[in-house]
UniProtKB/TrEMBL annotation:
The keyword Zinc does not apply. Residues 5-209 form the Luciferase-like domain. This is LLM class F420-dependent oxidoreductase. Keywords: Oxidoreductase. SUPFAM superfamilies: Bacterial luciferase-like. InterPro entries: F420-G6PD/mer (IPR050564), F420_OxRdatse_MSMEG3544_pred (IPR022402), Luciferase-like_dom (IPR011251), Luciferase-like_sf (IPR036661). GO terms for molecular function: oxidoreductase activity, acting on paired donors, with incorporation or reduction of molecular oxygen. It comes from the Bacteria.
Length: 293
């Protein structure tokens, strides 16, 4: 199976830094670039960022890590994805999640109270139908559309991956999605996630490809800054932060080894506070490209 590494962008990467970085990734042969959904930050919107990166490159893949789907109309999302895939075939890698990780941003994605998971499931069904079918009439609990014809159709099937780290999320991936991009889990937990997704897919009469399991990881440059440690502890108070975020590149390599053993083959690596962007990209190219197969 192909092992691939992509660069993830965090909240500190500003628009003026993107042109030189994208050019460097393209010239260095880096597989992919991933834009996070960070509404209240200087980071660019993931769909805008993907469009800009695709227009500036000829081979670099781009993805979202992750964009929120509930609160967006799935037909309009399908149109955006189909348009990007037509302009840059086989280079668009959408990953969606249930909600923003940041509580302050959740109000921007409006869904009925207590129904976010149900909206997500229905959104995924309609998104898939709009991408694949020539004409869609759909009546659900949250969306009703008629004679939907999203054009142009992607030249090849567009895979939809999901994030998430709960049993309900793994079951959703098994029922509706084509892959998993996890975060804030250990290799042992990732192995359990792969098993749960495969079981859910089999129960739904589906199969998630064996090379469609990935993880979003962060790497520091020595001791991790206190704000980074605090953020990790808030997210996973049950674990030592060092189990989730690598303090340096040797620690990251050990984490990658563990995730490979757990069955993951796709990695999105982002800087963990304090690393200059240029230095991070230089180290990424040196450390990780030789690990691809």
């Amino acid at each position: 199976m192909k092992v691939r590494f992509g660069v993830g962008l965090g909240p500190d990467v500003t628009p003026d830094q993107l042109p030189a970085m994208i050019d460097r990734l393209e010239a260095s042969g880096v597989d992919s670039l991933w834009f996070s959904e960070l509404v209240y930050s200087p980071a660019v919107d993931p769909f805008v960022g993907m469009t800009y990166a695709l227009a500036r490159t000829a081979r670099l893949k781009v993805g979202t890590s992750v964009a929120v789907l509930p609160g967006r109309h799935p037909v309009l999302v399908a149109k955006q994805l189909a348009s990007l895939a037509a302009l840059a075939p086989k280079r668009v890698l959408p990953v969606f999640g249930l909600r923003s990780a940041l509580p302050a941003e959740r109000d921007a994605f409006v869904v009925p109270d207590g129904r976010r998971a149900a909206v997500f499931d229905e959104s995924l069904r309609l998104l898939r139908a709009a991408l694949d079918e020539d004409s869609v009439t759909f009546r659900g609990d949250f969306f009703s559309v008629r004679d939907v014809a999203v054009l142009p159709k992607p030249p090849s099937r567009l895979d939809i991956w999901l994030g998430g780290a709960s049993q309900a999320g793994f079951e959703r991936i098994g029922r509706f999605a084509d892959g998993w991009l996890g975060s804030f889990v250990t290799p042992y937990e990732a192995g359990d996630a792969v098993a749960a997704i495969r079981e859910a897919a089999a129960a739904a009469g589906r199969e998630v490809p064996a090379d469609h399991y990935g993880i979003n990881l962060a790497v520091g440059e020595g001791e991790l800054p206190a704000p980074v440690l605090d953020a990790i502890r808030r997210r996973r108070p049950d674990l030592d932060p060092g189990e989730l975020v690598a303090r340096d590149w040797p620690a990251l390599h050990r984490q990658i080894d563990g995730f490979l053993e757990a069955g993951l083959t796709k990695f999105v690596i982002r800087p963990a506070g304090g690393i200059g962007l240029q230095r991070f990209v230089d180290s990424f190219v040196t450390e990780l490209l030789p690990r691809e197969n």
